[in-house]
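Exercise: predict the fold of this chain.
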Amino acid sequence: MSRVIFADAFVDALADVQSERVAQRIIRLVSYLEDMPELGSADLPESVKRRYGVRARKLVATPFDILCTYDAELDEVHVDGLVHQRAVV
């Protein structure tokens, strides 16, 4: 089981989510990362790769993207950000 580490930016953004239903969906998706650390898509815009790194992956929790990276050597998933899909360019 992989260790999941949350960045302060993710925690702060999650606290700002207005919909309880969406917040619960985000939490549920993130919980899957313990057992499936490479879950998500690596098909990201260049702007997201520049900000979160080329190894970043996204999980979709409409209307948000959860951005994370997996360090296989340490077996750690870093949940780095929560970005509204309209903000991604």
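Check your answer against the key: The first strand starts at residue 3 and ends at 6.
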